[in-house]
Design a protein that fits this description.
Elements (H helix, E strand, L loop, with lengths): L18 H5 L5 H21 L2 H26 L7 H16 L14 H19 L1 H5 L2 H21 L1 H4 L6 E2 L4 E2 L2 E2 L9 H24 L2 H11 L1 H6 L4 H27 L1 E2 L6 H14 L4 H18 L2 H4 L13 H19 L3 H15 L5
Antiparallel strand pairs: 1-4, 2-3
Helix pairs in contact: 2-9, 3-9, 3-12, 3-13, 3-14, 4-5, 4-7, 4-12, 5-12, 10-12, 13-14, 13-16, 13-17, 14-16, 14-17
């Protein structure tokens, strides 16, 4: 009998020893420990150690991260450029708002406030819209596909502004989806937790579920087909990958994620207004993917949290840099700096670090794995 090699407990992080280990989600002990530590920190310290203002901001970022993962599936993994993410976010937000809205009011409402029902419905309706649009992806690519999806944003803006019975109209809007679970309103203060604490924990749990599903998807047969279509769709078609099928599937899954994210996002914010779903919102989600790292689930989460907290961080700049004005209308005001940073960060990351924040983390990790050697 051959003795089993002893397991190394200390020293360098474990290396891959088999193809099966390479395919696992958390394939080394350091990754397992790091993920457990981050989840415990996010579930224990953050909701009880930070003020409600930051919890509200983080809840918004976690909800946006679900939408960023969806955009990354269709753009980063399947290679289909989409600038119409705001359109699918709006479909999800208004589907959930209509289902959970109070009947008999000025806007459409069905009184279904049970959160899993309106969240699933928001994703399904947005996913169906994505499947309807998806055949365009089979005929177009690159810049032409980007222009078509960009047109969805302006088409959606017109429809939602005119459909006042659903949206409330521009400048008025309507209340966001009612987050109710087993008779308890999650957006209101309770005996043990505040509304912001409950919404933060809700978005954290849902993000983990959506992220795990997406991670399993991209390392499966479907994910490998997405990568083949992204890298060379003609070659993928030659070796037997159904390009049409997987492009439609990518748009459908991405739109489902966007619909759920739109519903959650405006359940956290509490108000839905048609002008919110504009081109800037789509650009923000593109920035989340590019700055976080295209083709990575972790990068989507990093980018969403970074972009969401950026406006709040720029509000503190006038106290540090006197030449920055706190006036909203000023050219160098804190409000305008966030928009400037979106474009600037996209340019810098595309030039110097195409893999985004996730790429920076990989560089740091590889440096310490190889230390003290340089290779």
């Amino acid at each position: 009998m051959t003795a089993k090699p002893s397991r190394q407990l200390w020293g360098r992080p474990e290396l891959y020893t088999s193809y099966g280990q390479n395919l696992r989600m958390l394939n080394t002990r350091p990754k397992q420990l790091a993920v457990v530590a981050m989840v415990l920190l996010a579930a224990t310290y953050v909701p009880f150690g930070l003020p409600d203002e930051w919890l509200h901001l983080f809840a918004t970022g976690l909800a946006a991260a679900i939408g960023a993962i969806g955009l990354n599936i269709v753009t980063g993994y399947a290679g289909q450029v989409s600038l119409g993410h705001a359109f699918f976010l709006a479909i999800g937000a208004y589907t959930a708002s209509a289902l959970s809205g109070e009947p008999g009011r000025r806007t459409i409402g069905f009184g279904i406030t049970f959160l899993p029902l309106w969240l699933l419905a928001a994703g399904v309706v947005a996913g169906l819209a994505g499947v309807i649009v998806a055949p365009l992806a089979t005929r177009l690519r690159g810049l032409y596909l980007a222009i078509v999806t960009l047109g969805l944003v302006f088409l959606g803006l017109h429809i939602f502004k005119e459909w006042r019975s659903l949206t409330g109209g521009p400048g008025v809007g309507r209340q966001g989806p009612v987050p109710e679970l087993f008779g308890q309103r999650l957006d209101r203060n309770g005996e043990l937790l505040t509304g912001d604490q409950k919404m933060y924990l809700l978005t954290l749990v849902l993000l983990i579920i959506f992220a795990v599903f997406a991670r399993n998807l991209v390392r499966s047969k479907v994910g490998r087909a997405f990568a083949a279509v992204r890298d060379r769709d003609i070659a993928a078609d030659v070796i037997g990958v159904s390009v049409t099928r997987y492009k439609v599937l990518a748009f459908g899954i991405s739109s489902f994620y966007a619909g759920c994210a739109g519903a959650l996002l405006y359940a956290v914010l509490g108000r839905v207004e048609p002008d919110s779903f504009n081109l800037l919102l789509s650009i923000q989600f593109v920035a989340m993917v590019l700055i976080g790292g295209a083709g990575t689930i972790s990068g989507s989460i990093m980018g969403a949290l970074f972009i969401t907290t950026l406006p709040r961080l720029t509000q503190e700049l006038p106290t540090v840099l006197p030449f920055i004005s706190s006036d909203v209308t000023a050219p160098l005001g804190a409000a305008n700096l966030a928009i400037i940073f979106y474009g600037l960060m996209i340019i810098l990351f595309l030039i110097f670090e195409p893999r985004g924040l996730f790429g920076i983390w990989i560089r740091i990790r590889n440096y310490f794995k190889a230390w003290p050697f340089s290779y």
